[in-house]
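Thread: Newbie trying to understand structure tokens

Hi all, I'm a second-year student working on a class project, and my supervisor (Dr. K.) asked me to get a predicted structure for one chain before our next meeting. I've only ever worked with sequences, so writing a 3D structure as a token string is new to me. If someone could post the tokens and maybe explain what I'm looking at, I'd be very grateful. Here's the chain:
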Amino acid sequence: MLKRVNYLLYLILLSNIDIRAQEMIYDEAGVPKLKSRAVKADLGADIQASPFTTVILDASRSNPQNGSLTYEWTFATNLIFKEDYDYDDSDDLIPYTPAETGDFSPDAKTSIKRMITRNKYIELDIPDVTEETQFFVFLRVQNHVGSTDTDTLLITVEAPIVDSYTAAFSDAMQVQEDITSFTVVDEAAEYREPLTETVINADYLTIQALNKDRLNPMEVSIVNAFIFDFLKERGVKNILDPNRKIPDQIQVNKLFQRTRLEPDTVLLVSTDTLSVNEDRTRFQEAPIDTILKEIKGDTTGGLETYLVYRRYDTVTSIDTLFYTEVVDTTLKYNFYCQDYDCAAENAYLEQAGQVLAWGINNYSELEFHYFTLNDIYASEPLSRWIAEPIIFSPYADSMLRYPESVGIDPDGSLVIITGNRQKVFKLGKDLHPLNAIKDNALKDAITYPGGITAGFLGELYVTDKYGHSIYKIYEGEINTVFTSSRDKDGFVVQGEPTAPTSVRVNPQGEIVVLFEGDGSIHKFDLNGQRTTLLQSGILEAPSDIALSSNGSLFVTSSSLHQVFRVANDSTAVPIAGTQGGTGAAMDGVMSLESFLGEPVSIDFDASDRLYIADNAFGSIRVVNPDGMINTLTEKDNRVFDIAQMRINNQELTTLYTTHTLGHEVTRLRYHTSSNSSKFHYIYFPHYTIKQEGIYGLEDSIRAALESVLTGPKPKEKRSIIRKLKDSNRRFSEYLKRNPLIFGLLLLLINQGVSAALGDGGTADLPPDFPF
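---
Reply by user tm_fold:
Sure, no problem. This is what the structure looks like when written as tokens:
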């Protein structure tokens, strides 16, 4: 019986274990999107080089370094030629015209004017010059939302040194007694050591901290040390100490593939036989033979003399030569990485093949990501949209019950309206809810908040569905923008718009509001003057509105199963969804050819792609500017019961949906990972640090390391004595938390002893004992 009690206690212990681990496949880069001010082009310092040498044009310092940039290189004339290089199929090349180069010869090389590529490195062979020459290289980088930045590099090509003097000992060092340095004029071939490519040690592990500015410097150092010591204790070998002194610049030998076009000339020798009566001026040499041929005619005959000449022809073909060359390169170590591309580049400099990156990501999660360099360089990344509920802190979770509407602050943080307290909460970067209204007397002024949006200065516009009003909240103060006129009894006057819900801000800073009560849409300028954009009764049951980048107004109707563009106050033109609400929901077709089940909410991203939340299928549809429609969410990634959807165009493009009765806010983000990527997330780290300090994260960090390093880390080796000690310690801690179990255990021991002393008699157990 004692064994049975121990077994049940063990089950209870297992049921109390809280494992907060989540592994997912990882965010667009791509397609991913940063603030326009975060896009930075950087070509580094100007270059001075000699003719016939090779330099590397390095744009890797450009930001963001998440793979979302397109590089547009513009070169001076006669600096880089199309025939001298091998290009990727995705590269776009724009050549100079002969009129621009001034060379109209048929065999002239094609000088490249502009190259649009995804490659951040360009190897450039310095051309031959007769005097010092300067070439400009212009770089323009652009992310996928259209944000750009530029930088210029000056390449100075030194004039060649003309020196007719040849030393008698050209293979020796020329040394002067009063000079401490020396110059090698030429080095004997037998003493030359060819460069070898820097070796990446596949079993070396580097620990890379990302987004260090989101933690205290001491906290970063402590977490680095904790990870390093924990992995050492677990027996992981070849770990690079992240807190060691790392030089700013590291010299590596990088392998570059080069292409040469070599002319190959072949001499063809043949013979020509010509009559002495033919023109033979093209032959300079004497004939090698003479032939007499008989001429047969109707009336005459005779012999004719023919001369045999040797003819020489040359045929030239172009051979393409591919070869690799190791270049001695000095690169800078980045101590303030913000993404995995940067962490991978640092790992290359450290010659480590495994990377463990950690840091607080853009969603206020402490993210751990393990990957290998081999996968980064040898395989294509895996990308997909991931839908997941936001895990809030216990405090935030208690405050954000019945989330109805969500907005995006200018800094990219969330603003949420909740039905539980009818409050407007600003979450900030740490996802800690704060009431947007500071005046306690006015915190309950909004009775039924229906929609929210943020202006360009950080002001919030909130609609009151029950109060038929629109409010502006700025720096904690609330003011009325509009309220429907009422009669003396307090009822809304006939013809006034009612029940405002969805609210937007157009490019001019004016607010556009949907009034669900009568189905009308109105615009309010900065002075509060109202203009009707869509009259009442034009559309049946409109549920949401959205504005494109140029201010065009779009509205969705769930009952009509379509999305419309408002042409004028009496006309709405369908742009998505089949007429009559029939048909099939298809991808890769024009948006008017695909059925929409229940389009409840719409929004635009920075590239003017229209996103549609469809509750009937639990899907998020996206309509490209060319009118093609596709689905973001897959079968195992559906999102149902959406109250509202909004898009955050700051940093990584992210979709947020509210689920009122589910007490959830769902985040949809674009995840990119390598084949070896393993992720683990620790939620609400800011809240934990505020409550317990960095110490409060220790257990969670251990669990994260166990999760992402399942492959490379060995199992912890523990002796039998260690296992018994750990088991006894856990059992003692459990009994302290559950004294009743301890009392029952003592009772069992007492009954067992009594039975043993009583010659095996029956133990007197209480009548209600569960065993």
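A couple of things are worth pointing out once you decode it. The chain has a mean pLDDT of 82. The two ends are 8 Å apart (CA to CA). Feel free to ask follow-ups in this thread.
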